[in-house]
Write a structure and sequence with these properties.
Elements lengths: L10 H29 L5 H20 L3 E5 L3 E6 L9 E7 L5 E7 L5 E7 L25 E7 L8 H5 L13 H8 L2 E7 L4 H9 L3 E4 L9 H4 L5 E4 L16 E4 L1 E4 L15 E3 L5 E4 L10 E6 L5 E6 L15 E3 L14 H15 L9 E5 L8 E3 L5 E9 L3 E11 L4 E9 L4 E7 L3 E2 L4 E13 L2 E9 L5 E5 L7 E5 L25 E2 L1 E7 L2
C-alpha cells in the first residue's frame, strides 16, 4: 500500500500562530520584569528589615562561638572563634559601628580588611550579660614540698653535660634517679638535689646555701665530704659509719651486727611514736649497726641502743650541744642506727623508714631540740692517763666516782691495752668509803692489742645520784688498765678475785693479802647512762 505524505501548514495558519507567540513572550517578559523589581533591595520597608535580620543572625552566631573577648563596648566587640581557615589557629573577629547615624556596621577578621556588612546604620548597640564562674580545684597528686634536701653520694661524680659546659658550669652532677633512697625522699615531699663527695668546697658551699638538710648516704668515699659539710649550719642526717666522728658523735668507727634497736628517749620528736626500751626492727636482715665508742658526745640525746651489746647506736645532737671533742655542734645532727655500706632502701623495715623520715623532718626544723640525755660519769678523756696497772688474773681494781643526775645505766667503758685477751668491767655501790654490792657487770670483753677504749653492755638498772665504784679485772699480766693521778683525793681499791667466775657479789677489800687502799689513783673508766626525770 502506498503511504500518504504529511499535510503542511497554510500561510494563514502560520501567520496566526506567530502572532500568538509574540503576545505570549511579551507577557512573560513583563512578568519577569515585575518579579525582578519586587526582589530588588531598597532603603525602605521590608527589605531593610530583612537585611538587618541577616546581619543580626550572623553576629549572634559568631558570638555564640566566641572563646574569649579582648574588647567589649556598646558599639564594638572583638573576640576569638575556632579555626575557619584550616590553619589550626583561632580567628579574631571585630564587629564595630562608629556610633554616628548613617555610617556602616563593619566586620574585620584577623586584623585584615574592614568590610561593610550593613550600610546607613541608624542605631546599633551591644549589651553583655556576664557571670563569674569559679573553676573546680583539681587535687594536686604530687606531694607538697616539705624541705630541700642535698643528697651526698660517693665519688666519682658524673661528667658535666654539654648544656652545663655551654652554660659555664663544669661541676660534676649526679642523676637523682640513681639511688632508690632519692625516689623515697621525693615521695615524702622533699625536693632533692644531689652532689658527689669529691666535688669542691665551692660547689658544696653553693649547694648547702640552697638546701634545708643534708643527707650523707652509705656510699663508699663519703668521708671525702667530711670537711665540706661538718661546719654546715643546716641539719645533717647521716647513715655512714665513717662520718659519725666528723659529725661529733664519737671517736673511731664502731659497729655491731643485728637488726634491732632498743628505744632510748621517746619524748623526742623522732621517737615519739615508740615506748622506752621498746625493741624495734630497723633493718630486715642482720647487718652492721652503729655501736658508739668512747669518747662520746656529752650533749647528745640517746634515741636507741644496739640490742646485743647495748651500745648506743642512734642519737641526735642539737645545735650548740657538746660534741665528743668538746666543740659545739653548728646545726642539728642525726646519727642513724644502721651502718651498712651501700645500703639499699629496700633493706629497711617499715619502722626503719619511719624513723628515717622523722629524722629528716627533725633535721629540717620540726619539733624541739629535746634535752641532752647522755650522762657519762668517770674519766672520759684518754689524754689524762698517767700510768697503768697490770694483773695476772687474780686482782680486781676499783676507783670512786660521783653521779650527779638520775639515769638508766647502759654500758661501762675502760681505757686499756687488752693484748686481745679478755677483761671484765663492773660497777659497785658505795659502802662507807669502799666498794659495796655489785650492781652490774659486763661479760668477758675482748679488745685489740693496742691501747683503746673497751665498752661493754650491762643489764640496765636505774642509778640515783650519789657515789659509786667502777672496777676492772684483767686476765693476763700483759694487759694494762690505765689510770690518772687526780689533784683531789680519789681512793683506789684492790682485791683478789677469780677472773673466770666474774666479780663477786660483795666486794672484800684487800682479800688475798693485797693492798686494800691506795690514795690518789683513778682508773680511766666511765659509765654511760640514759638521763631520767
Amino acid at each position: 500500500m502506498k503511504r500518504r505524505p504529511p499535510r503542511g501548514f497554510s500561510l494563514i495558519e502560520l501567520m496566526v500562530s506567530l502572532a500568538a507567540a509574540v503576545v505570549l513572550m511579551a507577557g512573560m517578559a513583563s512578568a519577569v520584569a515585575v518579579s525582578t523589581r519586587s526582589l530588588a533591595l531598597s532603603d525602605t520597608g521590608n527589605n531593610a528589615r530583612a537585611l538587618s535580620a541577616d546581619v543580626q543572625r550572623d553576629l549572634l552566631a559568631d558570638l555564640q562561638r566566641a572563646t574569649g573577648f579582648t574588647e567589649r563596648t556598646t558599639t564594638a566587640a572583638t573576640f576569638t572563634v575556632p579555626d575557619r581557615t584550616g590553619d589550626g589557629r583561632p580567628e579574631t573577629l571585630r564587629y564595630a559601628w562608629s556610633g554616628t547615624p548613617g555610617t556602616p556596621l563593619t566586620l574585620q577578621m584577623n586584623g585584615g580588611t574592614v568590610q561593610n556588612i550593613a550600610e546607613d546604620v541608624r542605631d546599633f548597640a551591644l549589651a553583655y550579660r556576664t557571670q563569674t564562674l569559679v573553676a573546680p580545684v583539681v587535687p594536686d597528686e604530687s606531694p607538697p614540698t616539705i624541705g630541700r634536701l642535698l643528697f651526698v653520694s660517693g665519688p666519682p661524680g658524673l661528667a658535666p653535660t654539654f648544656g652545663q659546659q655551654v652554660g659555664g658550669s663544669g661541676s660534676p652532677v649526679i642523676e637523682t634517679s640513681r639511688d632508690p633512697k632519692i625516689t623515697l625522699f621525693q615521695s615524702w615531699g622533699f625536693e632533692v638535689t644531689a652532689i658527689s663527695a669529691d666535688q669542691t668546697q665551692t660547689d658544696f658551699t653553693t649547694a648547702i646555701a640552697k638546701n634545708d638538710v643534708i643527707y650523707l648516704s652509705s656510699d663508699n668515699g663519703i668521708s671525702q665530704a667530711a670537711d665540706r659539710v661538718a661546719s654546715a649550719a643546716i641539719g645533717i642526717v647521716n647513715e655512714n659509719a665513717a662520718m659519725a666522728e666528723p659529725l661529733g658523735f664519737y671517736q673511731g668507727a664502731g659497729s655491731a651486727s643485728g637488726t634491732d634497736t632498743v628505744m632510748g628517749v621517746t619524748s623526742h620528736y623522732i621517737t615519739q611514736s615508740y615506748t622506752s626500751r621498746q625493741r624495734v626492727k630497723v633493718i630486715n636482715t642482720a647487718n652492721s649497726l652503729q655501736a658508739f665508742l668512747n669518747p662520746k658526745a656529752t650533749g647528745m640525746t640517746v634515741l636507741g641502743a644496739e640490742t646485743t651489746t647495748d651500745k648506743i647506736n642512734f642519737a641526735t645532737l642539737a645545735a650548740g650541744r657538746k660534741r665528743f671533742d668538746g666543740a659545739n655542734a653548728p646545726g642539728r645532727r642525726v646519727q642513724l642506727p644502721w651502718a651498712v655500706t651501700d645500703l639499699n632502701v629496700s633493706s629497711l623495715s617499715t619502722d626503719g623508714k619511719a624513723l628515717l623520715k622523722s629524722s629528716l623532718l627533725w633535721a629540717v626544723g620540726n619539733g624541739s631540740d629535746g634535752n641532752s640525755s647522755y650522762i657519762p660519769f668517770g674519766l672520759t678523756n684518754s689524754n689524762d692517763k698517767v700510768d697503768y696497772f697490770s694483773s695476772s688474773g687474780t686482782l680486781m681494781h676499783a676507783s670512786k666516782v660521783t653521779l650527779a643526775s638520775r639515769g638508766e645505766l647502759m654500758e661501762l667503758s675502760a681505757y686499756v691495752r687488752s693484748s686481745s685477751l679478755p677483761l671484765r668491767l663492773a660497777i659497785y655501790s658505795n659502802a662507807t668509803g669502799v666498794p659495796g654490792v655489785r650492781l652490774a657487770q659486763t661479760a668477758a670483753l675482748n679488745g685489740i692489742s693496742s691501747e683503746s677504749w673497751i665498752t661493754g653492755a650491762v643489764t640496765p638498772i636505774i642509778l640515783e645520784p650519789g657515789t659509786y665504784w667502777l672496777a676492772v679485772a684483767l686476765s693476763n699480766a700483759t694487759q694494762r688498765a690505765y689510770y690518772d693521778d687526780p689533784l683531789t683525793g680519789i681512793t683506789y681499791q684492790l682485791s683478789a678475785m677469780n677472773f673466770n667466775s666474774g666479780f663477786p657479789a660483795t666486794w672484800t677489800p684487800g682479800s688475798g693479802g693485797s693492798n686494800s687502799l691506795i690514795a690518789i689513783k683513778q682508773l680511766m673508766m666511765n659509765a654511760s647512762l640514759l638521763a631520767l626525770p
